[in-house]
């Protein structure tokens, strides 16, 4: 620990890293013998530094989550586009099968009626 002259008193000066990383027990040992104002000032400085650290980690977490969500969005968008292409292809295939089915039904009806003979023509035209 370094010693710094402050208003005529010896008060150990801690770096920001030391102040943030020390345990509460270590902090309390360090605060023994300091004036009430110095204790309040050091505790406030520690709280400010810790909050700054928490805010930084929240920003990092938020950016990481945003990047992950963006990646998922792109993946889902690609999946939707792929499914839309498959759907379009299947609709074309379905339309072709429907046309083929209707043609077969028409053919089946003509075959079921049988060939048109002159007697059938005479009876049907009356």
Using brief descriptors, characterize the structure shown.
single chain, 126 residues, mainly alpha, two-stranded antiparallel ribbon, 4 helices, 2 strands, 79% helix, coiled coil, transcription, transcription regulation, DNA-binding transcription factor activity, RNA polymerase II-specific
Overview of this protein structure:
- It comes from Mystacornis crossleyi.
- The chain is mostly helical.
- It has a single domain (16-110), classed as Single alpha-helices involved in coiled-coils or other helix-helix interfaces.
- 79% of the residues lie in helices and 8% in strands.
- The chain has 4 helices and 2 strands, in the order ββαααα.
- It has helices at 16-21, 24-31, 36-113, 118-124; strands spanning 2-6, 9-13.
- Strand 1 and strand 2 form a beta hairpin.
- It starts with a strand and ends with a helix.
- The relative contact order is 0.05.
Spell out the blueprint of helices and strands.
Blueprint: E1 2-6, E2 9-13, H1 16-21, H2 24-31, H3 36-113, H4 118-124
Antiparallel strand pairs: 1-2
Question: Summed up, what is this model?
Answer:
This protein is mainly alpha-helical. Helices cover 79% and strands 8% of the residues. The protein has a two-stranded antiparallel ribbon with strand order 1-2.
Q: Which residues sit in consecutive blocks of at least 5 with pLDDT less than 50? A: 1-9
Output the strand order for the largest sheet. Answer: 1-2
**CATH overall fold name:** Single alpha-helices involved in coiled-coils or other helix-helix interfaces
Structural class: mainly alpha
Measured as a percent range, the helix fraction is over 70%
Cα shape? rod-shaped
Q: Using DSSP, what is the number of strands?
A: 2
The total tally of domains equals 1
Continuous helix count: 4
């Amino acid at each position: 620990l370094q010693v710094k002259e402050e208003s005529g008193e010896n008060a150990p000066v801690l770096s920001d890293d030391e102040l943030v990383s020390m345990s509460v027990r270590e902090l309390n040992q360090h605060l023994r013998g300091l004036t009430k104002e110095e204790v309040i000032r050091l505790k406030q400085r520690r709280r400010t530094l810790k909050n700054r650290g928490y805010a930084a980690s929240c920003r990092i977490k938020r950016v990481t989550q945003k990047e992950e969500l963006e990646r998922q969005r792109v993946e889902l968008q690609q999946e939707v586009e792929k499914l839309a292409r498959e759907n379009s292809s299947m609709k074309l295939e379905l339309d072709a099968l429907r046309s083929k089915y209707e043609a077969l039904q028409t053919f089946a009806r003509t075959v079921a009626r049988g060939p048109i003979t002159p007697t059938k023509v005479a009876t049907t035209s009356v």
